[in-house]
Specification:
This protein is mostly helical and 133 residues long. The protein has one domain: Cytochrome Bc1 Complex, Chain D, domain 2. It contains 5 helices and 2 strands. A two-stranded parallel sheet has the order 1-2.
């Protein structure tokens, strides 16, 4: 994904998140089952191949705690634009969604009925909360 496209998506995502949170509706949190078990399972082998050498569940527990009350889309876009470190943005968007689902799974957040869907906007109204210790 080129930098212009990524930048524009970030701006659009931020605006949508602000609009959604500003409407007074109670946002979902990552504890509300915002990914599917199938996504997490699909993300596991990619995570193990491309992520686990540098990152584990404890790393992500800290990362999630440090992003308390931020929209999930912000974390997704950070991962999308910076990982894997040796080739940022080199995976398919679906792989990044599945990896994020796997991250939520290994940090103790439950699966739900609807998949994470960046382009469908499902991450924009989901708030990060710290995992339980």
């Amino acid at each position: 994904m080129n930098k212009f496209k990524f930048g524009m998506l970030s701006i659009v995502s931020a605006a949508a998140a602000v609009a959604a949170f500003g409407l007074g509706a109670q946002p979902k949190t990552i504890a509300d089952g915002v990914y599917t078990e199938e996504q997490a399972a699909a993300g596991q082998p990619v995570f193990e191949e491309r992520c686990s050498a540098c990152h584990n569940a404890d790393f992500y527990k800290t990362a999630l705690s440090n992003r308390n009350n931020q929209p999930l889309v912000f974390l997704f876009e950070e991962i999308l634009g910076t990982m894997p470190m040796d080739m940022p943005g080199s995976l398919m968007d679906e792989d990044y969604q599945n990896i994020l689902a796997h991250i939520l799974s290994i940090t103790g957040f439950p699966a739900g009925e609807e998949p994470l869907d960046y382009y469908g906007g499902s991450m924009e109204t989901v708030v990060i909360i710290p995992p339980e210790s």
